[in-house]
Amino acid sequence: MKGLKFYAFALCAALLFQSCGMNKTTKAALIGGTSGAALGAALGGVLAKNNKGQWAGIAGAAGAVTGAAVGAIIGNKMDKAADAAKELENAQVETVTDGNGLKAVKLTFDSGILFDTGKSTLRSAAQSTLTNFVNKVLKQNTDMNVGILGYTDNQGFKSAKTKAQSQEMNKQLSQDRAQAVCNYILSQGAASSQIKEVIGFGEENPVASNETAEGRQQNRRVEVYLYASEEMIKAAQQAIQ
User: Fold this and answer.
1) How many domains does the chain contain in total?
2) How sure is the predictor about 23, in pLDDT bands with cuts at 50, 70 and 90?
3) Residue 192, Cα to own-chain centre: how many angstroms?
4) Which of 197, 217, 220, 223 qualifies as a cystine partner to 111, CB 3.0-4.6 A?
5) SS3 of 52, please?
6) How many other CB atoms are there within 10 angstroms of residue 30's CB atom?
7) What CATH number did the domain enclosing 11 receive?
8) For residue 40, what are the domain limits?
9) What spatial distance separates the first Cα and last Cα of the chain, rounded to whole Å?
10) Which residues have a Cβ under 8 Å from the Cβ of 188 and sit 6 or more positions away?
11) In three state form, how does the secondary structure of the chain look?
């Protein structure tokens, strides 16, 4: 139990300090991984599930109180953002539910489209997609929070001497890739105050089997979440008063 508490504390600290342009007043609105209940309890957040019953991995703005009317207003905005995101090339878009029970948007980018194998430098085609994401989605929804999560498959590095070392190298690669996405969208005019989390999870949280080439390709990905900020929630609450 002590080890679990320490792990939760350490991961919380990592979440707080590995962000790109995090606004200190909204650190409580965090995105967590499927590392689960200990993390969610430690942060006071609630991990949500999408409509497929899988972990969506996002926690809503801390302390927010919402109702059906507020949810409808925010849901409408999220639907519009999702529709705009679906116009982007090379992005898989779906709606998920955050820790407040509010609709959110999840974009998944295949790392093979964004980066060369083992690299964290964005390809030119990926830059075009992310530029359109900034212009057509983020700049139109400045009251949405953004979280960027990176993942890899479980294939080892040839230069690694042990499995543990290879896992750490994959985690660093996923962090570098998430950071590269963050840095690029900021360079294209995204507001730094929107981006709350930039986290690399490495081999954790696979969405498919690592036993097949197709499954490993799905696991090599960068996920970008759009979810309601405290400001958006407050504005929706005021609109129904």
Assistant:
1) 1
2) very low
3) 15
4) 220
5) coil
6) 27
7) 3.30.1330.60
8) 2-239
9) 46
10) 130, 131, 134, 135
11) CHHHHHHHHHHHHHHHHCCCCCCHHHCCCCECCCCCHHHHHHHCCCCCECCCCCECCECCCCCCCCCHHHHHHHHHHHHHHHHHHCCCCCCEEEEEECCCCCEEEEEEEEHHHHECCCCCCECHHHHHHHHHHHHHHHCCCCCEEEEEEEECCCCCCCCCCCHHHHHHHHHHHHHHHHHHHHHHHHHCCCCHHHEEEEEECCCCCCCCCCCCHHHHHHHCEEEEEEEECHHHHHHHHHHCC
Structure tokens at 17: 């300090």
Residue 115 contacts residue 124 (beta carbons within 8 Å)? no
Reported as a single tens digit per residue, the pLDDT across 177-227 is 999 999 999 999 999 999 988 999 999 889 899 999 989 888 899 999 999
33 against 63, higher pLDDT: 63
Cα dihedral 14, 17, 20, 24 sign: positive
